[in-house]
Amino acid sequence: MPKSIQIFDTTLRDGTQGEKVSFSAEDKFRIAKRLDEFGIDYIEGGWPGSNPKDMAFFERAKSHYFQHAKIVAFGSTCRSGNRPEEDPNLRALIQAETPAVSLFGKTWLLHVTDALKISPEKNLKIIAGSIKYLKQHSKEIIYDAEHFFDGYKDNPEYAVKTLLAAQEAGADVLVLCDTNGGTLTHEITTIVKEVKQAVQAPLGIHSHNDSELAVANALAAVEAGAVHVQGTINGYGERCGNANLCSIIPNLQLKMGYSCIPEENMAGLSTLSKFVSELGNLIPDNKQPYVGKSAFAHKGGIHVSAVIKNEQTYEHIKPEQVGNSRRVLVSDLSGKSNVTYKSEELGFEFDKSSEQSSEIVQELKKLENEGYQFEAAEASFELLVKQFTNSAPDFFKLEGFRVIMERNGSGESRSEATIKVRVNDQIELSAAEGNGPVHALDAALRRALCEFYPEISSMQLQDYKVRVLNEKDGTGAKVRVLIDSAKDGSSWGTVGVSENIIDASWKALSEGIIYFLMNQNSKPKKKAELAETGQT
């Protein structure tokens, strides 16, 4: 039986401190659900009380049942001069109503004396008192010893005292943090081994990538005795980032013999990586190990010839193990397996030996070459496959639309959209105003279709993201629009790509509505029927 390692994800907290990384409260909730499905043990949601976004996330999380993961609230020990029961930070941690709390305290004497300006003994009392208070409220305590390795190298005796204070107060895990990311791997190994001899509580590791050693340091800590590993998806985080769980998890499980997640979930790693980057509106790193687009790409000559004969010649694992795929750049030999995997992941059967399979693969490659990404647009991908299997729904047909935007000399702007759609043999013409052209187009489309599908009024546009795909073309660049729609807690993503942002938005908007109607098994109603029931 392989030894289990606890995986603690801090993408939603430490990851968001990275440059250009930003998630809405809804983004965070969607990511948390995916992390839970993937098999992550702990999901750190943010710092309650620090900002409205994190507060909204914890409120949303309270009403959702997470099958595997424990949601974690993050915060600091109480302030000097505050009693724990009166400290606003500790009170916010309790009010978040999470089963576990990640609490950080000072380890390095430099921070104790120069930053907090308190005595070393006072710092130990703050650590112990904060943890005891939270344990009284039945919280699992994951104690983050901030700047531990710098503190240990400066004064090992005091650094260990802070851990012992946390341990004696009831901390469930003691996490050794390389907060500045400057510790070398051989130092990690030595220090973790020494600390393991001095404490009884389980040890964890939290490493940063400032020396490009975060993953290596996490693995070294595990080999030295740590049983709890913290990191982020794609290594997002402050400065140079955090330890990348997309590398740590497969290294631990596939190569080192530890158990981190359910074995059957490992093939979802690449999709998880792209899902998080899409919701963060961040360009995926093609060169990222294991999950990057180039991780199993081969080009020309000896490499291509060898890998076709035996993949082990130039691949350290089978790419399918992490949900990735081999790419032969001179003649792409893969494709059908990708479509099959994505189809099965979305919950519908697809026979890769069917006559439509080659057509689907070629269309998918064509669209992805044009800039489409389907990892966070599952609804668009499902509709694409249904088009090729002659099962695509036909709820309405666009006859045309026009969008107008006006701005006067005083800076006031106005947007209006007019749209004509055909439902069965009936034509509906509708117009609407909006805050902007996309809002006006969405309102006009809904107004037209609600005449036939009144249930559309129950779905909402939840999020709207635009990414420029070829920045060198400036304002004439192609853009990708990703739209999230939702109803009653269920959400789905659609995508559109075009040089015209309105056209790209139309594709994503219309597919979002089509997908909703398809899953509602909707049938168009005639206006006379709606009038009789009072729905018009």
Task: Give a written overview of the molecule.
With 536 residues, the protein is an alpha/beta fold. It contains 18 helices and 16 strands. The protein has 2 domains: 6-261, Aldolase class I (TIM Barrel, Alpha-Beta Barrel), CATH 3.20.20; 338-395 and 453-536, Double Stranded RNA Binding Domain (2-Layer Sandwich). The strands form 4 sheets. Strands 1-2-3-4-5-6-7-8 form an 8-stranded parallel beta barrel, surrounded by 9 helices. It has helices at residues 25-38, 52-62, 88-95, 109-116, 120-136, 148-154, 156-169, 185-198, 214-224, 245-255, 269-279, 301-309, 336-345, 357-370, 378-388, 437-449, 501-519, 527-533, and strands at residues 6-9, 42-46, 70-76, 100-106, 140-146, 173-178, 203-207, 228-231, 297-298, 327-328, 397-407, 413-423, 426-434, 460-468, 479-487, 490-498.
Features:
alpha/beta; TIM Barrel; 8-stranded parallel β-barrel; 18 helices; 536 residues; 3-stranded antiparallel sheet; single chain; Double Stranded RNA Binding Domain
Count of separate DSSP helical elements: 18
Number of strands: 16
CATH architecture of the largest domain: Alpha-Beta Barrel
Percentage beta strand: 15-25%
Strands side by side in the biggest sheet = 1-2-3-4-5-6-7-8
Question: What is the oligomer described by this structure?
Answer: single chain
Q: How would you sum up the major sheet?
A: 8 strands, parallel, barrel
Q: How confident overall, as mean pLDDT? A: 89
How far apart the termini lie comes to 63 Å
Query: What name is given to the CATH topology of the largest domain?
Result: TIM Barrel
Say which CATH homologous superfamily of the largest domain is assigned: Aldolase class I
Alpha-beta classification: alpha/beta
> What's the overall geometry?
globular
Q: Helix coverage percent of residues?
A: 25-40%
Uncertain runs are 330-334
Give the CATH level 1 class of the largest domain: Alpha Beta
Our count of domains comes out at 2
> If you compute it from the alpha carbons, what radius of gyration comes out, rounded to the nearest whole angstrom?
26 Å
